[in-house]
Amino acid sequence: MSTVALQSIDAARQRAVVSALAAFLPQHALLHEHEDVHPYECDGLSAYRQLPMVVALPETTDQVQRILKTCCDLGVPVIARGAGTGLSGGALPRGDGVLLSLAKFTRIIDIDPHARTARVQCGVRNLAISEAAAAYGLYYAPDPSSQIACTIGGNVAENAGGMHCLKYGLTVHNVVGLHALTIDGEPLDSGGDALDAPGYDLLALLTGSEGLLAVITEVTVRLLPKPQRAQCILAAFNDIAQAGEAVATIIAAGIIPAGLELMDRLTISAVEPFVTAGYPLDAAAVLLCEADGMDAEVTEEIERMKTVFAASGATAIRVSRDEAERTRFWAGRKAAFGAAGRVSPDYYCMDGTIPKKALPQVLNAIAALSRQYGLRCMNVFHAGDGNLHPLILYDANQPGELELAERFGRDILRMSIEAGGTITGEHGVGVEKIDAMCEQFRSPELGMFRRIKAAFDPRALLNPGKAVPTLQRCAEFGRMHVHAGQQNFPDLPRF
To answer: How far, in Å, are 161, 299, 311, 335 from residue 307 at the CA level?
Structure first.
């Protein structure tokens, strides 16, 4: 999606930085040989790769502080990295910078069942929080597909969502406190135990800031009681646009499901042999719609959902009979990205968000783009909040296919903007969508973003070149803000 400027490694500069960091980091926590830093050359967006100059693996907050202060004094860029599962290139390293891996910060510091909070280090896996809280009948609601591996620090940096974010919110709605360090190593605390904290809402500002403002080392999250009952409906449709219309109808009926996900035929065919979830292979699309809560509440909501789906043209409606079947329904959805490898050597995952009423038109437009570019596209996404995750399938070994996939993705993002939506729902901007920011925002808005960045990081050393483009870059890109409308996709409604 964007032109990524790669940097060669200056050997003399590398030696100087390694020498400075070796004054307080043990040898095993400091990597700089080619074979040692190679595993860190990319995150989940593997199309873009860059060897880091140095990789630092601190084990204590004091070490993180000293790394940041040393890099600040030397004018060395710092890129924080969690598990490397991000999909926008947010953790892409620099050849002139230090990759700060926080993988060793894996301690669950405290679980307070009375306040229903958990205080954890930034490297704790998303799923590990719920596993630790289960003893108290509690869990952490945001559940990205990568929750078995992704870290809470990375979730905060990208404001991750998940299958159940429709009812329970994104990361920003479930974090109550952060401990972070600025580029010069100064501690910064935001949020707290009270319902509201005095001063500006730095908690919300830091959540989703993609490592541009500070390095998060500790997170306090809100825990929820496990629902008395959860039940999932699988509804099949003969037309994907019809399934999109059913999503809008469910929300219009005043029903807020715990989760509402869509998968198309190509996704179903990739997933079903892998997980045997019971998806109908002849369906054009399936919706997974979950109700949770008190027993009577779930019973009533399931019946209302079934009525809406039947009226919307569903060809088959199945309700999970027990917890095992419900888990199987969701297992297929969570495995969709991994299952793409069964049908294609490579895939390019997009992340746009649109108004729910635009789903039918946008899904048809994506199908048209698929035919135009000659590339298959797996549609699997958080339908309830309009967060698209089209997986554009390509073969990197075929000359020109990656470039075609990028152009296909660029058109999806532009279409999202023109439908009244945004270029990202939860994956972040990183390097992938930085040019699309020039279409999403006007120059005064981008200027404000850069001034916020400068207030935290005056020398632009934290994750430079990501998320917020310079005005010069936008001028070179040749596009400054596209108003929502019908300029490129005339079939889309105006909003």
So the answer is: 28, 13, 6, 29
Helices (H) and strands (E) in the chain, counts: 17, 20
Residues 6+ apart with CB under 8 A from 294: 227, 228, 229
CB-CB neighbours of 420 under 10 Å: 18
Of 206, 225, 244, the last residue of a domain is: 225
- Give average pLDDT by consecutive 10-residue segment, the chain, 495 residues: 71 97 98 97 94 98 98 98 96 98 98 97 98 98 95 98 94 97 97 82 96 98 97 97 96 96 96 92 97 97 97 97 95 91 92 94 96 96 93 96 96 96 95 95 95 97 96 77 47 40
> Are 299 and 274 within one domain?
yes
Sign of the Cα pseudo-torsion (479, 480, 484, 486, in order): negative
* 209 closest CA partner among 152, 156, 143: 156
Same domain assignment for residues 221 and 234? no
| Dihedral pair phi/psi, residue 354, rounded to 5° | -130, 160
CATH of the domain at 174: 3.30.465.10
Specify the pTM. 0.93
Q: Which two tokens stand for residue 3?
A: 């032109």
Q: Does residue 441 contact residue 423 with C-beta atoms inside 8 Å?
A: no
Final residue before a domain boundary, out of 204, 225, 246: 225
Q: How far apart are CA 302 and CA 405, in angstroms?
A: 39
Measured between alpha carbons, how far is 354 from 357 in angstroms, rounded to an integer?
8
Let me know if residue 487 belongs to a domain: no
pLDDT of residue 5: 67
**Does residue 125 share a domain with residue 216?**
yes
d(CA 32, CA 417): 42
The residues facing 101 across adjacent strands are 81
- How many domains does the structure of the chain reveal? 4
Query: Letter for the amino acid at 9?
Result: I
Q: Give the 3-state DSSP-derived string for 183-235, with helices as H, strands as E and coil as C.
A: CCCCEEEEECCCCCCCCCCHHHHHCCCCCCCCEEEEEEEECEECCCEEEEEEE
- Phi/psi of residue 248, nearest 5 degrees: -60, -35
Total count of residues recorded for the chain: 495
Range of the domain at 97: 11-101
For residue 195, the model assigns a pLDDT of 76
